[in-house]
Design brief:
By secondary structure, this protein is of the alpha+beta class. It is about 50% helix and about 20% strand. The strands form 2 sheets. Strands 1, 3, 4, 5, 6, 7, 8, 9, 11 and 12 form a 10-stranded mixed beta sheet that branches. A two-stranded antiparallel ribbon has the order 2-10. Strand 3 and strand 4 form a beta hairpin.
Length: about 400
Amino acid sequence: MNFEYFIAKRIIDSKAYKSSISAPIIKIGIVAIALGIIVMMIAIATGIGLQQKIRDKVVAFNGHATITNYDTNNSQESEKPISINQDFYPDFNSVSGIKHVQGVATRHAVFIQPDTFESVVIKGVGADYDWQYLQEFLVEGVLPDFSQKRNEDLLISQYFANRLNLKIGDKVTAYFLDKDATRLPRPLGYNVVGIYNSGFKDFDQQFAIGDIKHIQRLNKWEADQIGNFEVFIDDFDAIDQKTTAIFQETPSTLNVESVKQKFGMVFEWIGIFDKNIIGIIGIMIIVAGINMITALLVLILERTQMIGILKALGSSSNTVRKIFIYNATYLILKGLFWGNLIGLSLLFAQKYFGFLSFPNPEQYYMTTIPVYISLDYILLLNIGTFVLCLAMLLIPSYIITKISPVKAIRFE
């Protein structure tokens, strides 16, 4: 049997230990580790969750990268068409990690109701459109089906539905301005079949999703012409490398822009979350470590006579140090256990019930606080906390080597 472990276990199991002077300080150390794990877990889960949700909302309306003509302006309106007869469409086989490529086109219009009107960008999509992202945002009705013949189905945002007093099954007229200012706007009637709410105000107040065939007809394009391509990749972390690879594999007449380049301010903002998370983790580990150092020093002080007796019986300083390291390891593991239990309970409750919301949803582009739960970061967080706290205890444990057996036995 391991002698050091046996002595440490006897100390932990003894009633005197649980009712000793050091008991409150030990409990504080355990609570500090538990609270540290809870705070760090929540910081990581909510920080990454918020990053991913905001990122997914931006990608939903733009793709991870867009392929456009070089002379395309910044007005969110497709002007010069691109042929879909490209080597990279519909399957971008020359670059690995490309999940999907779809052709879209946009055009400005004005929704006019008897008592109000709203400016809108009609985003025309076709049979190749991936509804995966917008499916999550759908709050009422169904998603349009543009895989067959041209139709007037329209997906609008909750913002437009409220502003124009529209509901599922209603008709709304969109007026498209002609490039020739002397001509009257061209009206087109749409049927509202679905209402979405992404929570991203900049997009909800801008986009409605309709059939690309109408945009092609209004622009006098051929059936094989679109405004731009949207490219989706498997791994967002590789977006810079993939964007470069996509650019190299497309014709010189076309430009490629990643969503990070297009919405630089948004991604710079959510990138700050990483620094905040690192700062919180550092502070909590330091606080937990200091509390454990204090608890260990109190334990050593309280067991000074026992240290003297063990040394007098022939135990080395390293042997006695191991006893207290085993003792501290138990306290750290106990704190980690309760911290994980409480922290994961809170995170799963938020994930499935969403009881916590943002006080100002418009600032974070969502109402409910999102959480990201992954075994990878939970294990790394626990292992890192355990190793760092234990490493911080090695230095104060050297005090044991300075304790004289004679003085320790006479210690009161």
